[in-house]
Amino acid sequence: KHINNITWSTEITAKINFLFNSFKDLESIAISDNLPTLDLLYIRFYNVYKEYIYRDKVVFVFTDSTVFSNIKKNIEKYKKTDFIFKSSNMETEFKHILPDILISDNKITIKKSMNSIPLEFLFNYYSNKIDDKTVAWIISRMLNFACYLQYNNSVYASFSLRNLYVNTEKHWLKYIGGWWNYISENDSFSMMDYDVISCIPKSLLKTKKDTKKIDLYIIKALALKLLGNPMA
User: Fold this and answer.
1) For residue range 171-219, what is the model confidence (pLDDT) as tens digits?
2) b/e string for 192-217 if b means 16 or more Cβ within 10 A?
3) Which residues contact 149 (CB under 8 A, 6 or more apart)?
4) Of 120, 122, 182, 219, which alpha carbon lies 20 to 30 A from 135's?
5) Residues paired with residue 154 on neighbouring β-strands, in sequence order
6) In sequence order, which residues have a C-beta less than 8 Å from that of residue 59 and are 6 or more positions away?
7) Half-sphere exposure of residue 221: CA atoms within 13 angstroms, side-chain side
8) CA dist 218 to 26, 30, 41, 223, 225, Å?
């Protein structure tokens, strides 16, 4: 059909073949982890887990049983937390961003909206620098949530490009990953993601105790990163 534009048609065919083969690779990985391939968009790989991103959920598959056992304890601790809604406005603001977590075998599943994507994808799409106005509303949502956590004597300690999912249409953030780092007041940290440790002063890390400043230090560093500031 495109004999008059061989260069273009060859390029498009190569892209289609590349995408098809890429998905076949994802499919084989998903099947090996006993997960469905329907609506699977992407897989991200980390040291101790794989993150399967679907249209309506995210599934974390952990490969180390010892790590998963510790993570499960932290998740169960989060699930037992009785988050207090000060008013009906507070409930409207925060209830939809708190995760609905399901634990089974070596997997953690968290629901999300169809239009939510990892903040990391948005950041990469804009070549590692997002415009000021977009960063302003993203950071304002994080600070609102940090205030809510402080009111509930909790620390999330996981604000990062990979753990936050953004819905640009509704200006929502969803806190998907990192809930295994969550601690309540007076708890000690049992684990922390590598990409947030460098944001926190060593004096705070040495205590290994909950402090409400930790989330604010992480958000500050993330704001600089989103703006493309090399000091991030």
Assistant:
1) 889 999 999 888 887 777 777 787 788 888 888 777 766 677 889 999 9
2) bbebbeebbeeeeeeeeebeeebbbb
3) 155, 156, 212, 215
4) 182
5) 184
6) 35, 51, 52, 107, 108, 109
7) 19
8) 32, 33, 28, 9, 11
